[in-house]
Write a structure and sequence with these properties.
Radius of gyration: 26 Å
Low-confidence stretches: none
Shape: globular
Largest sheet: 9 strands, mixed
Number of helices: 15
Mean pLDDT: 89
Structural class: alpha+beta
Strand order of the largest sheet: 9-8-4-10-11-15-14-13-12
Amino acid sequence: MQITTCFDATGRAVTFSDKKFFATSMAGLLPVAHIARSLDLFKNAREVISEAVPSKRNTQYSAEVMFEQRILALAAGYEDLNDHDHLSHDPGFSSALGTADIAGSATLCRFENSFDRRSINQLNETLLTTFAQADKAVGLLPKIRRKGYRCIFLDVDSTYVELYGNQENKSYNGHYQCCCLAPVLCYLHGYPIAVFGAAGTTDARKVLEHYLPRLLRRIRELFPDYIIVLRADSGFNSNRLIDTCLANGVHYIMGFPPIKAAQKAIYEKGLKHARRKKVKRYTTTGTAEQTIGETDWNAKSWKQKRRVIARKRFDSITCQLDLRLIQTSIVNTMDPQHNGYAGELSLASTEDMYEQVYCGRGRMEQWIGEFKTECFGDRASATKFHTNCYRMILSAYCQMLLKVVRRLQYFGVRKNNKKAVQKTVRTFRRDVLCVTAAVREMNQELRLTLPEYLHDRQAFEALFSIRI
């Protein structure tokens, strides 16, 4: 027993016991790794990595294990490569990974610097295939009531990853006012399926125009019974993107800048099905008058007329007019043979098309924030551009894994608690993943001794009782 000079608030002396025991700070990582193995989430990525970085004869650490090691570490909240020098001492992490030979920071750095453009593109394509396999196993997409009726949204947006060193393709972006990379993220039904890396000054529309045709064809092959809708803001307004969607049988709904010609057409023709109502404005002015309607308009660069939905909001106190426009190929019809028929979306009113369908892409900001902050997608500290792209793909895999696990755990909690709310990544990591427990390893059993008090014992136990 080691005596210290420290006393607690009640005057008791603090001492150290000489009796040692093994403990882990990430007991909840064990079921997460079990779910990943049961769903085989890393199978497609392992095949690409084994081909891109073949293991040498005398190599102690395989490339496939290092890939899984990085994802599990990100899920547990360890973003730096330096953290892996100490993760080998945690029995919970070693048990979740399945090996005690954990690569250090130097080995991982050499491994990540070995990727080229071809291997990055192949690894990026495995995200969609992995999502399709997980959906087939546990049902991530909404169920189809009848064929060709349910819709899934492909949300795209660009963001910035700030850089501080001398990295490749580093450039100053005037919009974000920093030196950064500007990747384009693609989410299908809220799950990441592609991360296209780009320099800070690269136009996101050009990046998406290059990759979108193949991406849509692959989505159509994997999900033939669903109606696919591309949803984006006005920054992706491009005739080439729209023509690509129409050529692949995909609908679109995206923002449109309120240019003078469009405003003139709206004021001259008026708005069909226009509805005016008072809405709350979360500012000091209180409320404003809002009108939502639609019109058919054909710009000079368009091949045919498009359905344009306008939202006009006027604040009488400040005398400010806010005009927002969106364009879509979805037509309000009940005829399945119509070219603009989009199943359940064709039954939506003009107001719902703007406020519910298009404004639903606001969740994209939440997903991007989760990707960058909680899954560490903004950790681009490598010198090589392809290495930083590889780390973004790792973060996308981490986000997909955590979304699948949280969904399964949420339905497990709902069986006993109908008022349960799905946890964010931060609270899920605090309450469920990073739980301290004493570990006793035996030949046929790994016994965990949990503390008497947990933040959310019900959610923690529900994670261990998921059956796949």
